[in-house]
Amino acid sequence: MTLPPAPKARLIVGLEIHVQLRTATKLFCGCAVRFGAPPNSLTCPVCLGHPGALPVLNREALRCAAKTAMALGCRILPRTSWDRKSYWYPDLPKNYQISQNEFPVGLEGAVELPRADGSVKTVRIRRVHLEEDAGKSLHDAPDATLVDLNRAGTALLEIVTAPDIASPEEAGDLAREIRRIVRYLGVADADMQKGHMRLEPNVNCAVELDGAEARTPIVEIKNLNSFRALEAAVAFEFERQTAAYLADPAYTLERRGKESRGWDEAALATFVQRRKEEAHEYRCFPDPDLAPYEWIAGELDELARETPELPQARRRRLARELGIGQGDALLIAEDRATGDLFEAAVAAGACPQTLAKHFINLWTRLAKDAGTTIAGLKLDAGALAELARLQTDGAVSATAARLIAEAMARTRAAPRALAQRLGLTRLSDRTALLPLVKEAIAANPKAAAQYRAGGGKAAKSLGFLQGRVMRLSGGRADPAVAAALLREELGPQLG
């Protein structure tokens, strides 16, 4: 009996990323943008959509949008305009959203994602546009939905990719890279716990069976607020849609269309919300209260000059020029201010490789414990360089460097002074080390005998005895001096 061929399924994902811009006021009114304010306290007739209230464009939001579009390699349109996108929802007080339909800020960009094998995956950016955010519906009450309109009208940047993403991991990598970019540019905090960045993947599958390929319905998963949720939701949909098609060949895009689904974090599953609207159902038309905006001469050039080196370019440069690993460069360049601090410490005389190890193994942990970034620890670049030099020069061990770093984070004292005060300077004096060497040999006669016998266990036995000396010295012994003294005291090997 010949078994039928197994179906082949290919994941297809396009991503919509919504980023709240870092502006003092909302997109079309003077209401403050502030997280955690009392519900419905940051509103006015404009963002509530009262009759006769007229919107006025926040130009800083437009500048932030253009900077981001440039950083994503987009073509900036010389003229951008505003449209009313009509739909009803309880937290949308005007019953329409001011967005950009026909003339967005930017078109046709791309983001490159480095792969583990050294290759690069390119994800195309279809468009970057501005729109006002909706309010927030709260479903905590047992018998009612509460609405907070503080967020209504805030400046929201939407980045729409082409369906080039082929795995949950690629979706997560792209979202992380976009967050790095907007933070480097200084246009957004992108704090996902505060709802400053929300992710909406559009997912379907190409299933090949019996030589024919079918496409499952496109599902938009709404308002994901973590990278973990994004990757889990995409992975779940891939499995769900593939299984649904194999169970019912009518489960195709042509027959079922599109739908919106939510994500249940507890169940790790998506659930149906509604049929997804098509573009014509939003009845977009130009907003009669907002004139199109045309960039004035030199304005875009000025924005381009303000754009810093972007995270991916910085990672490549750090790895190339300073000889640090790609993984280390990724973590160091995750935060712009932390990358600046690292480079300032190198300029102050730190060995880049030792400093990179400190950033990854010492300072990252201390920053996480403090709930901040490495730059947020507010340590001086010269002090970081001095600690790295102490270890590079052999004045302190790696263990001592960790203890000094912890003390620096608490006291802001200088590393060398802390090393002396805490008794952490390396012990290199042969006269001082010799009693410790003799004690280690006397306490471990079996290891001493194995070394003297020679053979395959000799090196391991010497390393063990060296570790005993390090322990007796409180980690201060110079390993090279300790090893030399051990060889002298143990005498010649027989083997």
List the helices and strands and how they pair.
Blueprint: E1 8-20, H1 59-71, E2 75-76, E3 79-80, E4 83-86, E5 96-99, E6 106-114, E7 120-132, E8 136-138, E9 146-148, E10 155-161, H2 168-185, E11 197-209, E12 212-215, E13 218-221, H3 227-247, H4 253-256, E14 258-264, E15 269-275, E16 285-286, E17 293-294, H5 299-306, H6 311-322, H7 326-332, H8 336-347, H9 352-369, H10 381-392, H11 398-411, H12 415-421, H13 430-443, H14 445-453, H15 458-472, H16 479-490
Parallel strand pairs: 13-14
Antiparallel strand pairs: 1-10, 1-11, 2-6, 3-17, 4-5, 4-16, 6-7, 7-10, 8-9, 11-12, 11-13, 14-15
Helix pairs in contact: 1-5, 2-3, 6-7, 7-9, 8-10, 9-11, 10-11, 13-15, 13-16, 14-15, 15-16
Number of contiguous helices: 16
Helix/sheet category: alpha+beta
- Mind summarizing the main beta sheet? 10 strands, mixed
User: Strand tally, please?
Assistant: 17
How many whole angstroms does the radius of gyration measure? 30 Å
Helix content: 25-40%
Query: Mean pLDDT across all residues, rounded?
Result: 91
The overall number of domains is 3
First and last CA, distance: 66 Å
Outline? elongated
Low-confidence stretches: none
Q: What percent of residues are in strands?
A: 15-25%
Verbal overview:
The protein is of the alpha+beta class and 495 residues long. The chain has three domains: 8-294, no CATH class; 309-421, no CATH class; 430-490, Arc Repressor Mutant, subunit A (Orthogonal Bundle), CATH 1.10.10.410. The protein has 16 helices and 17 strands. The chain has helices spanning 59-71, 168-185, 227-247, 253-256, 299-306, 311-322, 326-332, 336-347, 352-369, 381-392, 398-411, 415-421, 430-443, 445-453, 458-472, 479-490, and strands at residues 8-20, 75-76, 79-80, 83-86, 96-99, 106-114, 120-132, 136-138, 146-148, 155-161, 197-209, 212-215, 218-221, 258-264, 269-275, 285-286, 293-294. Strands 1, 2, 6, 7, 10, 11, 12, 13, 14 and 15 form a ten-stranded mixed β-sheet that branches. The protein has a three-stranded antiparallel β-sheet with strand order 5-4-16, with no helix packed on it. Strands 3-17 form a two-stranded antiparallel sheet. α9 (352-369) packs across α11, α10 (381-392) runs antiparallel to α11 (398-411) and α14 (445-453) packs antiparallel against α15 (458-472). It is elongated. The protein starts with 7 loop residues before the first strand and ends in a 5-residue tail after the last helix.
